[in-house]
Specification:
Layout: H1 21-28, H2 51-56, H3 64-74
């Protein structure tokens, strides 16, 4: 699959339950590694991005508590700060 987005474009991903929408987004954000193939965001692999990438791209789960804990982990923050 090849997907391209223009700068500043807002895109929605829809599909039935269990169709791996969240997994796709997590992989694009570098949270998950792809099982096969290659994922490039801004021409680079998202799992090796630095803090500049993290300021530009993010993932927010529909479950608030897990999103908060995930963001704390990704940005090296103590969730009790």
């Amino acid at each position: 699959m090849t997907i391209g987005f223009a700068g500043g474009e807002i895109v929605g991903i829809e599909g039935p339950n269990a169709s791996e929408k969240s997994t796709l987004l997590r992989t694009m954000c570098g949270i998950h590694l792809p099982i096969s193939g290659e994922v490039l965001v801004y021409g680079k692999r998202p799992d090796i991005f630095d803090s500049d990438f993290k300021r530009r791209v993010g993932y927010v789960s529909s479950r608030r508590t897990s999103s908060f804990a995930l963001h704390c982990e990704l940005y090296g923050m103590d969730k009790y700060e």
